Amino acid sequence: MRRHTIDLFMWGYQPHYRSAMQYLARSVLKELGAGTDVDACVVVVGARRPGSSNLNPVCVEPEDGRWPLSVFDDLLQSIESIYLDHPSQTMFYGDEASMREKPEMMRRDSVSTAVARALEGFDAENGLRSFCGEAYVVDDYYVTPVVQVSEALFQTFPPLEARPPTHWQGGNGYRSLIHAALAAVLDEASQELLRPEPGRSVRSKMRSAEELIRIAARNFMHTPGIAVADRYTYADLFDRFNLISSLLYEGTQGVGHIVLANPSNASIEYVIRFQEPVPFREPRWARKVLQMAAADVALIADSEQIYGLGRLDPTHDHRLQDAFTIDFLDHYHWELSCGSQVLLRSHYGVPQLPFEVIEMDLFTSNYARLFPQSSPPEQSHIWDLFNVVIRQNRGSMIIVAEDAASEARRLAQQGTGIEPVRLTEQLLRRVSGIDGTIILDPTGKCHAIGVILDGAANDECTPSRGSRFNSAVRYVHSASAKRLAIVVSDDRTVDIFPLLRPRISRASLERNIAEFEVTTLDNYHKARSWLDSHRFYLDALQCTRVNAALDRLGALPRDVGEIYISTNPFQVDREWDDSYLTD
């Protein structure tokens, strides 16, 4: 029987605590739409509390992870220095209880601050960003939970620029939805430290990722409220805008804009100014006046009420962060922006990170692999057409087909065939106004418009999607010729079908298989997870090797109560071929 010894021991459930919090952090980021492979890691740092005789001044969980103990060599000295210079040292509270609690509050804050400072150099060297939760005492240690994410995450989802804190409130809210989400995770982690034996049966006590992302969205939506007000007000803008976007006015959905700004902002040009502002606490009234907001004018509001109709000066400097825009896109669908930077999207009350439907490189790479005879200028032209069709306020569909000419003739009774012509953006806007599908060849020439597609049902069809999507899937699957469908549904969902999997290198695949073949029950998790998420790329021999390693791990003796993650056997995917691998 194997025994686990923790040299840097804080309390018995410290590995369970860290593992649960890491799982929660990754789940929250995944639910927000940050990606399925977000490498969020949790490290738990313990600083020995004054008066303790424990031999370890600092403990780190995991002790054999990527965080060397040397990162925290001067942690205890740093804590004492921060504590002595803490700004609350000269603060006097009006009640005895607060004064009594002040030293412990300063101590805990000093620990968290010192841990954050100690990680700055490590973060810079490794391309990471650390977020520290509140420190609390567990036995002999002040324990601080830390979530680390890659800096690349903030290149994909850029936050607002940091600003000095306001004099009246001490902060400016959160710089991004990610910041708010990680703060919600760390609050959950810190609260667990207050319970007896933190980490024991922790999964049953934690709030779900779905709950935390809604908490994060509510907290993040205080940011524009703080930015545009001249005083602090509590306004639950996330729930208010969800409610307004859900309401119909005389059977029509709300589509319009709200500019959140101080009503006296010099960059606001009023078209209509209400004698009495419309309060957001009257959602049906707010929804009624939203009906007047069109493409060229918006409602002007702060976090509490609507003042009229107007425009934001196009020369306004959005770096000031004193004006934000709410765009109501569809029924129960809206987004928050600062200038051209989208910060949050909400669809049926579910908050998400802003994301591009697909990046240009991925789109053109997918297109070139499907239609290798197309040239780079032709691929770029299709990309431009794609961006036109997804920005229109209606559903539509484009099919690109190797056999476009013959298909236009075959489907002549189900559409309108035309003399082949290069489809320009202006022409696309005109012909997409009628029902039916536009058929192009891989060079971008249009052969038919308004086509009703055919094709047999297949496994890719789903009753959860509309007729336009299922029609595209049936049509693309029904032929041996290469075809690509661009589907924009009425609810603004965009699908590209097929969207080929990205290529990965043979060397990367082999390296992870070889690593997994020699793992133990203590270190198999990373390689197993990578292979499980990349199982599509394995050939028959590689599947056999991985399955043999799984059998070996499954047969090893385990401690009573030890958790082992079982994995389904690997088998070759029927769509696999070596075109998905690079040298």
Quick rundown:
The protein is 36% helix and 21% strand. The chain is α+β, with helices and mostly antiparallel strands.
Question: Could you walk me through the main structural features you see in this protein, from its secondary elements to its overall organization?
Answer:
With 583 residues, this protein is of the alpha+beta class. It has four domains: 14-220; 228-352, YojJ-like (1 (3-Layer(aba) Sandwich); 360-497, DNA integrity scanning protein, DisA, N-terminal domain (YojJ-like (1, 3-Layer(aba) Sandwich), CATH 3.40.1700; 504-582, no CATH class. It contains 17 helices and 21 strands. The chain has helices at residues 14-32, 75-84, 96-126, 152-156, 177-193, 209-220, 222-228, 237-246, 283-290, 360-370, 376-390, 404-410, 425-431, 467-477, 506-517, 525-533, 540-555, and strands spanning 41-48, 58-61, 128-132, 136-138, 141-150, 256-261, 268-279, 298-301, 305-312, 323-330, 333-338, 341-347, 350-352, 396-401, 416-422, 437-440, 445-451, 483-488, 494-497, 504-505, 581-582. An eight-stranded mixed beta sheet has the order 7-9-8-6-10-11-12-13. Helix 15 crosses helix 16 (525-533). The longest helix is centred in the N-terminal third of the chain and has 31 residues, at 96-126.
Please count the helical segments. Answer: 17
Approximately how much helix is present in the residues? 25-40%
Overall 3D shape:
flat
**Overall pLDDT confidence:** 89
Oligomer classification? single chain
Q: Summarize the biggest pleated sheet.
A: 8 strands, mixed
Number of domains: 4
Question: How many beta strands in the DSSP annotation?
Answer: 21
Structural class: alpha+beta
Strand order of the largest sheet: 7-9-8-6-10-11-12-13
Radius of gyration: 28 Å
Q: How many angstroms does the end-to-end distance come to?
A: 43 Å
As a percent range, the share of strand residues is 15-25%
Task: Extract low-pLDDT stretches.
Answer: none
